[in-house]
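Hi team,

As requested, here is the filled-out complex form for the protoporphyrin IX containing FE run. I kept the field names the same as last time so the parser does not choke. Let me know if anything looks off before we queue the next batch.

— J.
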Amino acid sequence: MSMRNTTTSYGSVTKLFHWLIFLLVLAIIPLGYTMGSIQDKVLRSQVVNIHKLIGVSILILMLLRALWALNNIKPALPFQTPNWQRWVERCMHVVLYVGLIIMPLSGLIGSVAAGKPPQLGSIRIEFPVALNKPLAEFMFEYIHEPLALILIALISIHIFAALYHHFIKRDDILRRMMPYWRGR
Ligand code: HEM
Ligand code: HEM
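And here is what came back:
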């Protein structure tokens, strides 16, 4: 399988980014919603820290993924695809990229501004913002928390669209993102 995308299929690097980030997002969202209700204080701060570290990994992977996508062609959609669908598909992918960069960035800025940066062993992961409680509150209340709901909705639509292509339209859209698929 080619490392780079071709006109008919995604390459191995795009597939690796797609599925690895999917697994990380699948883990981080339930963690985000449940970690606050852990009673034990020490355990809670450890789990919150794991949430932060997974989030920073998603941020780094998304930035690399965006660079890779900008330097690769996008496989063509079936030729009969109407223009509005091409437009919706492109917008959805761009919004998913931007959302999955703003999401961890807002968490990181909020945590550093609250004086609680992610810790990797004895290393504190820093970001150039000063201690600033109102900024931290803004980041979580107006960006991190609402964007989580928006992303859950968009990802659900995205998965629904992939399944619709595979089971109803019966085209190669889902297959060409699958690890084993080498194109026709
Ligand atoms: C793609 C990456 C991320 C996703 C999808 C995500 C998702 C979530 C979700 C769903 C919540 C629960 C929100 C709620 O209770 O309404 C949450 C809370 C939180 N996240 Fe993240 N997160 C990400 C990255 C990060 C990063 C990188 C950090 C910090 C470095 C972070 C720090 C936090 C903190 C401190 C909370 C608790 C905030 C509160 O008090 O409500 N997150 N996150
Ligand atoms: C966290 C969850 C997910 C995110 C953020 C996400 C994001 C993306 C993005 C940004 C693309 C555009 C291609 C690229 O540049 O990588 C894409 C393509 C694709 N995704 Fe996902 N995805 C997720 C989960 C899924 C799941 C669970 C499925 C399958 C059920 C799926 C099926 C596909 C397919 C089939 C394509 C190719 C579409 C085409 O050929 O144009 N995705 N995804």
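Two things worth flagging: Residues 14, 18, 22, 25, 69, 75, 89, 93, 96-97, 100, 155, 158-159, 162-163, 173-174, 176-177 surround protoporphyrin IX containing FE (ligand 2) (CB under 6 Å). Residues 139 and 145 are 9 Å apart (CA to CA).

Thanks,
J.
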